Amino acid sequence: MKTLLVSLLLLFNLQECESNNQTNTVKEIPSEELAKYETAYFASGCFWCVEAIYESLEGVKEVVSGYSGGKEKNPTYQQVGSHKTGHTEAVEVYYDPTVISFATLVKVFYGSQDPTTVGQQPDFGDSYRSVIFYKNAEEKTIADAAKAAIAKDYKKPIVTEIVPFEKFWKAEDYHQNYEKLNPNQPYVRSVSIPRLNRFKAKFPELLKEGE
Q: What CATH code is carried by the domain that includes residue 159?
């Protein structure tokens, strides 16, 4: 009975990542200002969690939640959630390379998830898979080297995909800054915030002042 109750609670919490359309009240940074920064693209589970992790980093200006890795144009949250588009929930990270490097962003990527789980971070399905989208040969080399380096730390194989970046589609407005705007939402409270806090405890030296 206890196992059944735990399973039902987990299912409820995971499903919460698929609900609650709320209005975004955080002011967006103008595109001309963001153009000054480099971009990087990652996926490792629900983008609410991943966005909050990268937002906490010194040197990161902005993080946008969205979709990447599939062929569907202008995908919606419902389409991606159906696991039929090939897209995964991803984030677009705007960062200052004079403050934080792409290699450090990759370190954060691997250090804030379990890279041995297939489509489960902890959410289930291919739209939650672990992916680094590289834009050039240098990024691919860094990503491949990091993957090989951490392999010795796990008994199971690293399943992270390292694939060329093609296109990033911004998610609906209500997904942006979701964890910050909805701290009491059940999924955020039980999954996103604990995941963020585990990351902060692991990498305090990378955090913005006050995080």
A: 3.30.1060.10
